[in-house]
Amino acid sequence: MTSTDDLAPYPETPEEATAENLARHMAVEAHYSATLNSPRFQLMMAAEKTGENLADKRSLYMLNQALMLAEHGVAFLLHELQRFAPDQADEVAARMWDMWEDPPLQAITWDALESYGINPEQVSAAALARWEAATNPPAPAPSGLAPWDDGTCGDCATGKCHGTESDDCGCARHEVSQPDIDDEVWL
């Protein structure tokens, strides 16, 4: 069986880490991930119907989607760099390869965020909050309440706020107490 490394091997040395070699490798990896995207989507859809391992299947699909886009993005940028800045393309590719080979990547991403004026601690807090929300489902509604009624809003108990606009009922928690499928947390 042919492996992706047989088609376009990952560079093993700085000398092998040319823009052409890295772009070829990343293009193969992106297509590999793209090929797996459809079956992973089908698994997620099947799990959505049964509820069995839905979070795991959704996470696998979304991670594959992100990986595919990142791999393709690197291949595309290196290819374009060869076209528009051929004298610098190999140097940039070698620096990127060296960065990948010299972890920890969190220190590198930290520096990158700071160079854009973005607070890395805020990004970390947002990532951990999303992880926490995705891995710890909300507690079930108190007995006798509808699943969307968290019991904290008097208007929810009367049914006054749900199914209407929040301006109509005056419920400040209207958007929070009735989840919308489009707002679901995705890993």
Q: Which helices and strands, and how do they pair?
A:
Elements: H1 4-7, H2 19-50, H3 54-84, H4 86-101, H5 105-115, H6 120-135, H7 154-158, H8 166-169, H9 174-177
Helix pairs in contact: 2-3, 3-4
Description:
The chain is mostly helical and 187 residues long. The chain is flat and about 70 Å long. It has two domains: 4-102, no CATH class; 142-187, no CATH class. Residues 163-187 have low confidence and may be disordered. Helix content is 66%, strand content 0%.
What's the overall geometry? flat
Residues in β-strands, percent? under 5%
The ordered string of helix (H) and strand (E) elements is HHHHHHHHH
Instruction: Note poorly predicted spans.
Output: 163-187
Number of domains: 2
Distance between the termini: 32 Å
Largest sheet: none
Mean pLDDT: 81
How large is the radius of gyration?
A: 23 Å
Overall SS class: mainly alpha
- Helicity, as a percent range: 55-70%
Our count of helices gives 9
Q: Got a strand count?
A: 0
Q: How would you briefly describe this protein structure?
A:
With 187 residues, the chain is mainly alpha-helical. The chain has helices at residues 4-7, 19-50, 54-84, 86-101, 105-115, 120-135, 154-158, 166-169, 174-177.
Summary tags:
2 domains; single chain; flat; disordered C terminus
